[in-house]
């Protein structure tokens, strides 16, 4: 049994909430401190949770609640921008289907589960510093309040404050060269059948000079997501200040001749457009931990939305960190074991997403079409054995 008994978790999003739930199962009392005064339920658009993410949620008892918040999309069809179907995949036997949902719905489901299990969440607590001592670490917040624990865990996202406390020279997020957008095609239009193929339970990806993905929602609408190359990045706030009509016009110009991107965009009303801002990823972070501080989730390994793995990897890391703190004799040994367990996997997935981003930005042709096993097998089958003790030497 490890020596860690208490933890301060910075960030009440997906990674922070699951971290606190996993720590509770490891016998460690954790309090979540969220900067937003009312939580982060309005942040983000749509996302997917892959089988490996759902398997990790099963460990903390949240899988069923999260499944209920979304809908299954077990199938994937890959195509080119001329409408030619290149490959398809319908899931691996024995694994749950990938689920799609609004990020806000995932946030609410996880928060409800955490609160029901007794996890404490403090809102309006923006971290500004941390002071380490022989008996623990004290988090200092902008309102002057403090919180003391054995360890401090940074689950505070891609612009992490904890990351800069660990290493002031740590890299920040890397811009992928594209802005992300999503939108909806109304059910009556989508049902006409001449906009895009959209069989229920199937997600479609069409590459070419431009990329677009889409799938049918349970209410019959078709949800799409697309990329607009741009050399100079804009912040999310700057993107929001440009009217949706202008963005939609630029997207329609970009997707002229694309099948079915041109039709999907033509049938999208401006009031359904979702501008998600610059597509970003975290490059390799040299230092995942220092002293009693450690990073988890997007704060250390955001792979960009192109991976389809951002939320799933954050959940995996939360569970593995709790497992290491449970089993290793002290926080230093736990943090080292956690990094060894996670770094190789998350950086491989992040690197593959970076290659996809280059294709979306028009810097390379469409991605090679690997087999479903090559594309999804090792990622989706990843399993954490919660009941196994973390070995002394993690390979």
UniProtKB/TrEMBL annotation:
GO MF annotation terms: FAD binding; monooxygenase activity
SUPFAM superfamilies per UniProt: FAD/NAD(P)-binding domain
Positions of the FAD-binding domain: 7-325
Alphabetically ordered keywords of this record: Monooxygenase, Oxidoreductase
Protein's UniProt keywords contain Oxidoreductase: yes
Oxidoreductase recorded as keyword: yes
Coiled coil residues, start to end: none
UniProt-recorded name of the protein: FAD-dependent monooxygenase
The organism of origin for this protein: Micromonospora terminaliae
Lineage start: Bacteria, Bacillati, Actinomycetota, Actinomycetes, Micromonosporales
């Amino acid at each position: 049994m490890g020596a860690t008994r208490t933890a301060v978790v910075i960030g009440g999003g997906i990674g922070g909430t699951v971290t606190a739930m996993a720590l509770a199962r490891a016998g460690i009392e954790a309090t979540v401190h969220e900067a937003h005064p009312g939580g982060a339920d309005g942040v983000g658009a749509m996302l997917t949770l892959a089988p490996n993410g759902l398997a990790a949620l099963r460990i903390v008892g949240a899988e069923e609640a999260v499944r209920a918040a979304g809908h299954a999309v077990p199938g994937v069809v890959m195509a080119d921008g001329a409408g030619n179907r290149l490959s398809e995949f319908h899931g691996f036997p024995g694994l749950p289907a990938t689920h799609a949902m609004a990020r806000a719905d995932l946030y609410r489901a996880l928060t409800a589960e955490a609160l029901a299990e007794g996890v404490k969440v403090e809102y309006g607590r923006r971290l500004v510093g941390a002071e380490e001592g022989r008996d623990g670490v004290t988090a200092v917040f902008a309102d002057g309040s403090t919180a003391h624990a054995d360890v401090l865990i940074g689950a505070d996202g891609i612009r992490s404050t904890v990351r800069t406390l660990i290493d002031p020279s740590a890299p920040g997020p890397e811009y992928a060269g594209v802005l992300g957008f999503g939108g909806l095609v109304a059910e009556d239009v989508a049902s006409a059948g001449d906009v895009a193929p959209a069989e229920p339970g199937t997600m479609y990806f069409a590459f070419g000079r431009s990329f677009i993905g889409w799938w049918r929602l349970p209410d019959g609408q078709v949800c799409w997501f697309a990329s607009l190359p741009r050399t100079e990045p804009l912040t999310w706030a700057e993107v929001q200040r440009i009217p949706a009509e202008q963005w939609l016009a630029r997207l329609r110009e970009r997707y002229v001749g694309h099948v079915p991107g041109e039709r999907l965009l033509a049938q999208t009303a401006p009031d359904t457009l979702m501008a998600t801002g610059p597509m970003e990823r975290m490059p390799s972070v040299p230092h995942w931990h220092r002293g009693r501080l450690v990073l988890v989730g997007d704060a250390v390994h955001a792979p960009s939305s192109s991976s389809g793995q951002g939320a799933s990897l954050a959940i995996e890391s939360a569970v593995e960190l709790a497992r290491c703190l449970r089993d290793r004799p002290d926080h230093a040994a736990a943090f080292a074991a956690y990094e060894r367990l996670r770094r190789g996997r998350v950086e491989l997935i992040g690197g593959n997403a970076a290659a996809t981003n280059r294709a979306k930005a028009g810097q390379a042709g469409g991605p090679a079409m690997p087999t479903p096993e090559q594309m999804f097998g090792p990622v989706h089958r990843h399993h954490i054995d919660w009941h196994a003790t973390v070995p002394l030497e993690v390979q």
